[in-house]
Amino acid sequence: MLGYSAETPNEIRAVTCTPDVIEIGEKVRIEVDLANPSDEDARALVDLRIHFVKANGSTSPKVFKGAELTLKAGGTATVRKSVSLAQHTTRKHYPGRHRVDVMLNGVVHPGADFEIV
């Protein structure tokens, strides 16, 4: 619908969460390193899906918009997103390991994780 192909030549090279152990109320910074090894420019729609730990220990995913960009042929890019872990009336945070997936042009790829203590 948005014109991004699921069959993109773009690749996810690395996903990092900094810090990887964090307290409620702080921010976690998520970085996604992308590369386009092809001979043609390629569009990328990058979103982040965080699986937040709930009070009962299960998880519930929430999608955060990342970026829309075009990677030049042979080029690289880094998408950065900071997520607040402050308590909200709409989203409460609980201790545990939180998984981050990267959605590249709508296709889910495993990412990294961080722990709230």
Would you kindly provide a written description of the structure presented here, covering whatever features stand out?
The chain has strands at 11-18, 21-22, 27-35, 42-53, 59-71, 76-84, 96-104, 107-116. The protein has one domain: Immunoglobulin-like (Sandwich), CATH 2.60.40.10. The model has no long low-confidence stretch (mean pLDDT 93). It has 117 residues and is mainly β. The chain has a five-stranded mixed sheet, with no helix packed on it. The protein has a three-stranded antiparallel sheet with strand order 1-3-6, with no helix packed on it. The chain starts with 10 loop residues before the first strand and ends with a strand. It has no helices and eight strands.
Low-confidence runs: none
Overall mean pLDDT: 93
Task: Tell me the major beta sheet.
Answer: 5 strands, mixed
**Helical proportion, percent range:** under 10%
Distance between the termini: 40 Å
Order of helices and strands: EEEEEEEE
**So what's the CATH class?**
Mainly Beta
Number of helices: 0
Q: Spatial order of the strands in the main sheet?
A: 2-8-7-4-5
CATH superfamily (homologous) name: Immunoglobulins
CATH architecture: Sandwich
Rg on CA atoms, Å = 15 Å
- Number of strand segments: 8
Q: Identify the overall geometry.
A: elongated
Q: How many structural domains can be distinguished in the coordinates? A: 1
Global structural class: mainly beta
- Approximate strand percentage: over 45%
CATH topology: Immunoglobulin-like
